[in-house]
Amino acid sequence: MDLVPALEEPLKKVLGPATAKVMAEHLGLHTVGDLLHHYPRRYEERGQLTHLADLPMDEHVTVVAMVADARLHSFASAKAPRGKGQRLEVTITDGSGRLQLVFFGNGVHKPHKELLPGTRAMFAGKVSVFNRRLQLAHPAYELLRGDSEEAVETWAGALIPIYPATAKLESWKVGKAIQTVLPSAQEALDPLPDTLREGRGLVPLPEALLKIHRPHTKADIDDARSRLKWDEAFVLQVALARRRFADAQLPALARKPKPDGLLAAFDDRLPFTLTEGQRKVSKEIFDDLATEHPMHRLLQGEVGSGKTMVALRAMLAVVDAGGQAAMLAPTEVLAQQHHRSIVEMMGELAEGGMLGGAEQATKVVLLTGSMGAAARRQALLDLVTGEAGIVIGTHALIEDKVQFHDLGLVVVDEQHRFGVEQRDALRGKGKQPPHLLVMTATPIPRTVAMTVFGDLETSVLDQLPAGRSPIASHVVPAADKPHFLARTWERVREEVGNGHQAYVVCPRIGDEEDDPKKAGKKTPESPEDAAEKRPPLAVLDVADHLAKGPLQGLRVEVLHGRMHPDDKDAVMRRFAAGETDVLVATTVIEVGVNVPNATAMVIMDADRFGVSQLHQLRGRVGRGSAAGLCLLVTEMPEASPARQRLNSVAATLDGFELSRIDLEQRREGDVLGQAQSGARTSLRMLAVIEDEEIIAEARQEAAGVVAADPELERLPGLRTALDALLDNEREQYLEKG
What we know:
By secondary structure, the chain is of the alpha/beta class.
């Protein structure tokens, strides 16, 4: 899609080293092809003005507006003590709002001459707040004189493309660079098969690139967008279809549970009946396990919908069939918790080879990096002899030393934390590829699942088991209404008074070495800035403040990732046993922690967390019969996007709904969020939520193309586009899925 042979020319040859360096460092653009695929974010019409009313804080923006007035002020300062300092204030307007521009010192002369009332120009800079008003300080600008040669040339047509830009490179400079390389677009190799392109009435790729950068009409933009969206969706889906095709060719052992084996014995001792959803999903999994090529299934469900139960039954079925099952957890805390809860659920069925163990029993072992040498040796021995049917562990399971007797199923918890290398390393430990079940507790809209986890079949658990209680969620605006924060701590005391427990979650631990340096910074200018600029609240400080102040007399403990694993485990055990009233923690408690008696959760600086993370955290309360309470504390002002995000979390408990909101609110740069795990998104044009239909159709088309020609021998353009998509970081992104 990006690097097609004729477009592999490095930018430094075409644009000169200085511009090329900024493009590489700040925009990740290295070749002519990269630059051609750097699409405009939006278009300004000559006769129309942008919306100043909707400017985002702290972001680099480009606006087209008209100068309303310009005033030069003199002032005294340390550098200009005799009132010789100069400040130029320019007000620009676009009909929807006004915006202040300021220039200081020697920088006032040129704009004072050029920015006269009535002048139209493009302005670029970072939006900040001064005296409660939005402003741009020292913006770069480009006058729009409709008559000069260059302006007519550069801004051909009535539509001015506005590009994603940076402080080092304004939108119009990106535009000029693109005009320079645009003739190369003629040589772009088309990745879409002709039949597909013609059948769907899509324009050829060179034409699409021309129209996206130099549209004459809005219809040009629509043509180009439809075409470029198809490229992205189709190339990505071909990559996933090839993975599915390759996986389907692998052999695997069919694993069928015995009618009177371990699974049957386990089901008999369950104190409750499975939900309809759990039964349906289990059947899908058992059907997959019974086939002779490896299962690749994604099990997603709401926080607390009983995914662990479904996964455990799958593991028992495999043990029944003579194989072993491994469950991979992202953290030691979680691995220990899973181990403890699985052993409890199985009772004497987990005591294989021991006195008192049931006759169908197996051994359930834990394997983590911090285990003592003797326990570790025993665990490794149990795995290699086949004595242990089930092992639960962290990355330690993947090490070379770990050998299995017959690994039949791998269950990965919280998939987005595992790369494909780890998945493959664990797979390689089976005599034949084991079956794979991936669990994620962040509900993912169907389209994202098709895009990110496209190589997995999907099962969804959307019913909550009986006995789960509703959770009330509220936003606590600590800056606007300090008494709300005081009331928050009273509510925590009330919950504890009623025999319950509470969590307080903070974004940071608080023993970082670089703190003093941060503390020395100058004070910000406004409350918005203050909330944004101060370091996030830390566990150690908050715990100390609460224990000495609002929660004095309660038993307060801390839990965070840098504690020794044994200490972490001890803290969790005390909390689970009810010996601690309030646990002040980082997000280590985000997944899997199950303490039914904990009913309240206070999330400090909630605006520093993502939507799905807040939903995950909230899922730790309301796990018993008493109702849950989640308080989202923030200092962000009411109108800010951060507050709107928190309001949407407080308004619904539906994780699928929240994940849609989350995606719609993010910028296009991180469409696939956590699943994409930091790699540069290959989706520049495709909006995952809006383009649901294109993604679904592209998936079907891709499956057909790959089935007919797995190596894509008849489609060289598509092969090239695929290689470009799957350069290293993309390969990783695709498979982090």
